[in-house]
Please model this.
Amino acid sequence: MPSTSLPLAVQLYTLRKLEEPFDTMLADVAEIGYTGVETVDNHGLTADEMRAMLDKHQLQVASSHVGMAALEDNFDAVTAFNRAVDNQMLVIPWLPLPLRPQDAAGWRAIGGRLDRLGRRCQDAGMKLIYHNHDFEMTRYDGKLAIEWILDSVDPENLGFEPDLAWIAAGGADPLALLSEYSGRCPRVHAKDLARPGESDNEKDLADVGYGRLDWDALLPAIENAGAEWLIVEHDLPPDPLDSIRRSYGFLHGE
Model:
């Protein structure tokens, strides 16, 4: 059974439907064995409140998903909050539909916008990376949208958080993209795609190791690409805690 030596974090979006306080959620994550979390903005907490709960459960923030507009409009507040919770990795998680270009020039322009934002992050002692979905796997003039973005920026200003399941769902090859952007992938999202006829949720997603992705090949490729954290996510799990427990067990060879 495949396994990884990388530290494991949970993208807390996975647990958003749990009706429990943030403190209890972190306790659940730590009890399973995870050592980190990937946050979504500030979860309605002050930096002092979040830091106290993280310390209580011996968890660290591996990275944080922050909308591009929120980061541009509230840059000082966002970076100050993340600095206070000891996080230096900011992730652009999603492009709303009105922002998604329909040609190569538009995707290059998105890259330019992220390049400027990433330079500001660098100057503030932070690192900016971009998280994909399936729509960045569309080709424009022979290149994937994600390639137009990443190839149009200074690599120092923008890294890549490959979401392996969304890459495959979009028809691209996650192994190829991990290789192409090796050294620029400090965080990687691990989720799986359901096998035909086995989906029990919207979007045909599955817990890590319980779908059709080839983890025997992917796990070494993730490490070779320079990942520092592997972040477990499932967008719509029927049972969120069971989902992250199953994924953790698979990734630890249990």
Summary: The chain is about 40% helix and 15% strand. The mean pLDDT is 96. Residues 11-189 form a domain with the TIM Barrel fold (CATH 3.20.20.150).
